[in-house]
Amino acid sequence: MTNNASTSQATTSGRGRGRKGKRSASPATVADERIRQERAYQLRLGLMTFQEIADSPHPEDPSRTLYSCESAARRGYLAARDRHAGTQETEDMRQEWIARNEKVFRALYPRCLRGELLAIDRYTRLFSEHISMLGLRRLDVSGQVDVRVEGAWDASFRELSEQLAGLDPAEVREQLPAQP
Predict the structure, then answer these.
(1) Partners of 65 in the beta sheet?
(2) DSSP labels for 126-149?
(3) Cα–Cα–Cα angle for 43, 47, 50, nearest 5°?
(4) Which long-range CB contacts under 8 A does 89-94 form with residues at least 24 apart?
(5) Is residue 165 part of a domain?
(6) Are 52 and 19 in contact (CB under 8 A)?
(7) Over the chain (180 residues), what is each successive 10-residue block's mean pLDDT?
(8) Which of 29, 55, 145, 177 could join 25 via S-S bond, C-beta 3.0 to 4.6 A?
(9) What pLDDT does 71 receive?
(10) Please, what is the end-to-end C-alpha distance for the chain in angstroms?
(11) Are residues 73 and 116 in the same domain?
């Protein structure tokens, strides 16, 4: 009979295994990722798009791109941004993006008022990113909204209701034609 406890322990506690049996990154890989994240952060400070960041050359090996795709560049930038939260360069970049967004808002707003659907779509998408950048993403909007739209039909119905409210139901029944 074999000892199951020792067999189980030997299979799950391999060298280089992290949480849930996945391989943990080597210190060299972690250092490389930190370098790439910092580079993505610096390029974003220069107002580059995430696709441009992904396509830019790796700082240590120019034959490689910095990231494989736009979403990987975004994740790298966000990780570095979280480490730099509250620094002056982050605040400067934030102010630059706010100024840039406001220029675009001013250009799109008249087109939105004319009812151009593409302009409305771009405006709402940009506005969503803008409020996220300002830290307003999680506003509490738990209040109730009461919207009333009144047209000609509503006014006629209200007038009829007021007339009927003043009548005695017995008188109304007397005036109705007899039903066969």
Answers:
(1) 57
(2) HHHHHHHHTT-TT----S------
(3) 65
(4) 89/45, 92/45, 93/44, 93/45, 94/133
(5) no
(6) no
(7) 45 51 70 90 84 90 90 90 76 78 86 86 83 63 57 66 71 67
(8) 29
(9) 93
(10) 96
(11) no
